[in-house]
Amino acid sequence: MKDCCSTPGLLPIEQALEILKNQIQPIAETTRVSLEQSLGRILAADIIAPFNIPPHNNSAMDGYALKLSDTETKNLLPLAGKAFAGHPFKGTLPEGHCIRIMTGACIPQGADTVIMQEHTEQKETGILFNRLPQKAGNNIRKAGEDISEGTRVFTKGHKIKAQDIGLLASLGIAHLCVYRAVRVALFSTGDELKAPGEILRPGDIYDSNRFAVKAMLQKLGVEIIDLGCIPDDPKKIRETFLSANEQADAVISSGGVSVGEADYTKDILNELGKTTFWKLAIKPGKPFAFGQLPDSYFFGLPGNPVSALVTFQQLAAPALRYMMNCHQHSPLEFSATCTSPLKKAPGRKEFQRGTLTIDHNGYVKVETTGGQGSGILRSMSMADCYIVLPKDQGGVEAGEPVNVQLFDELLL
Ligand code: AMP
Ligand code: MG
Question: Sign of torsion, CA 341 347 353 358?
Answer without folding.
Answer: positive
